[in-house]
Amino acid sequence: MSPFSARVGSIGVPDPHRVPSTEPVVRVEAQAGGPAWVVTDPDLARVVLADPRFAKDTALAPAHWDRRTAGLEPAAAEQMSVTTLDGEAHTRLRRAFAPLLGAARMRAAYPRLRATARRLLADLGPEADLVEDFTTRYPLTVLCDLLGIPAEHVDTAMHACRLMHTDYPDHVPPAMAAFAALADAALEDGPTAELARRMPPGSTRRDLHYQIFTLLFAGQLTTDLSVGFVVARLLGDPAAPADDDLVDDTLRAHPPAPFTLWRFTSTEVELAGLRLPARSPVLVDVVGVNRQLGRNAHDLTFGAGPHYCIGAQLARLELRAVVEVLRAEHPGARLTTPFHELRHHTPGGIMGARLLSLPVRLR
Asked: Rounded distance, CA 4 to CA 6, Å?
């Protein structure tokens, strides 16, 4: 089976790993056609993630690739983005986000994260399936608050995020229009306006809209996928850590993305004795590397190097807030389906797994 195949599995049964790890670099068949190379060795993975010859710009993708099949973002020349820019251009744009997602602001925001988790869980009935609404609503409520987008627009954000997964890419235009409207709805003197002022010279309103899309969509997706696994383990996994390591341990075992985003060689590169021609697609096997590293190591759940996820700290704090609220205010909460019977779906490609359901009795 291809490592990019869609599949359904049980949370209680380790997913059979789809990338052979006997070699540090494995050649596979890409979904968009032709060869791709997957890095499975932890040390080599960190080298690749820091090496500028492995570029993020999708303009370097193989010429024969269908961008729709590959799920590629616009090239850097088409759209400024922290996920496709490289070098100094990436550093300048990343600086614009620094105050918004910096350590000081995240620490200050943590009580609001807890309050959001508390309110949304309290709004649910005694029994609820958390993946029906909560796992999506929670991160988007947090993100709208951080960006100064009024709370009445959270449903718009949820609809836009779900459109991105519906018959992709047919519904991308209305979804992007909705994200642009969310950016325009932000408070004039709030964090979004601050981000706009810090954008690199020459940035347009469209560029700002795209950054808000990136924050909302990627931020929702990461926490949406992860919070289900964290809550499931908290309430039902006898092997789950009993201390504050639960979040990190779950992110390591169930990373929201099984692979990094695509990188492409900007020139011919020798990698573990292999000659990779220019424009070769390369991934790092996050799941496999994390398994090799084990619990007491710096995993690659959020990447490494200059493209380390800018929202990693926020995602961890969101998850910890949910754990704290459940422990403190819903001490009797339990799963209504046995832990080992919970199922998750991986849609294929480089997308991560999501629980199909998470039925919980809260009180």
From this structure: 7
Q: What is the pLDDT of residues 292-326, one digit of tens each?
A: 997 767 899 999 999 999 999 999 999 999 999 99
What is the pLDDT, as a whole number, of residue 170?
85
Best CA proximity match to 289, nearest among 266, 257, 243: 257
pLDDT tens digits, one per residue of 252-268: 999 999 999 999 999 99
> ω into residue 255 within 30 of 0, thus cis?
no
Residue with tokens 């229009």: 177
Which residue spans within 158-313 are E strands per DSSP? 263-265, 269-271, 274-276, 281-284
CATH class of 7-361: mainly alpha
pTM over 0.85: yes
Instruction: Read off the tokens for 182.
Output: 């969310």
**Do 260 and 291 meet the contact criterion of CB atoms below 8 Å apart?**
no
d(CA 302, CA 315): 10
Total Cβ atoms within 10 A of residue 340: 12
The β-bridge partners of 7 are: 346
Residues in the chain: 363
Q: How is the chain split among helix, strand and coil, in percent rounded to 5?
A: 50, 10, 40
The dihedral through the CA atoms of 209, 210, 211, 212 has a sign that is positive
Q: Determine the Cα angle at 170 with ends 168 and 175, to 5°.
A: 85
